């Protein structure tokens, strides 16, 4: 395994931690700043919106620059945002810190996906992307419970100091272990990157990303209410039950990457169908604590198994200029989160109960599957040259002559 993948995964771990750990610290942060829970929620909403903006605008701004220095610069932005959060003495200062940290999120995962794919042979590209996203899944499995524990026992600022340190370590790792590349200068321009969006398959891939991830997060956003009000678990058990969900994310991400390296479209269709079935099963059996345990793990596994394939597919159909399309797809994941959370909230407001977000998630996932089937059929009709049945996207990283390859 190239050492650069480990450095990219560590960066993903830090970014995933800063996105998700605040959910467990909102009561402490709200009390410290003297604001309502709804106002504190903007630390999450503002972050998500900033991710979408950064995924497009920041990626577009750096598209002609060499990717390694860009990744380093993005981590500097990440470190600065979390440092501002750690020292924030007011609500607006904290919100600014969150927004600054989030600006690097989409661009880091978008550009990092291209770099990760270029570090390995063609038949291992989706697996390499999965390894980079392992950092994000590990943040859910290990980082969030530990970060919440740290914040609850030593003050919420200690968590952001820890994340800042992780950012510094990740920056050093990328500086030392990711090979310098010449791509993003001679072979790429903003015009060519924007030209990738003339491909209908790129847009279909992005739609599948929004719907596929929206389906999982439609169910997951209100999972605490489902676990306590329907399944009957004690509220104190919820964080540890989410570790089970996170373990599913971790396994699904790796398995999905390996499967997508063999066939992207078939893998995505099978996984989306499996996710829809898991959500229906979960909705029907949520009153059973035992069945809920299985559903949590399977929902995480099938939900995140789509990520390497979805990211690889959009890069494949934007193969000559994949950077901006890759970043846009990271933004699409966050739009999916917002869509799922909104629709799940609508069903609860309508009085349909705490299993209704799961049903809504299943419906969105079925829509993703239908779009994926149509996209795969259109790709087959379009000819073998750009078919995603065998992954060939993301051009290999071209190392500059003065730098030795990193194993």
TrEMBL record:
It is a multi-pass membrane protein. Residues 387-407 are annotated as: Disordered. GO terms for molecular function: transmembrane transporter activity. Residues 4-380 form the Major facilitator superfamily (MFS) profile domain. It holds the Pfam family MFS_1. CDD domains: MFS_NepI_like (cd17324). GO terms for cellular component: plasma membrane. Keywords: Cell membrane, Membrane, Transmembrane, Transmembrane helix. The chain crosses the membrane at residues 42-63, 70-88, 94-120, 127-148, 160-181, 202-225, 237-256, 268-287, 293-310, 331-352, 358-379. InterPro entries: MFS, MFS_dom, MFS_Efflux_Transporters, MFS_trans_sf. Residues 397-407 have a biased composition (Basic and acidic residues). It comes from the Bacteria. It is found in: Cell membrane. Gene3D superfamilies: MFS general substrate transporter like domains. This is DHA1 family inner membrane transport protein.
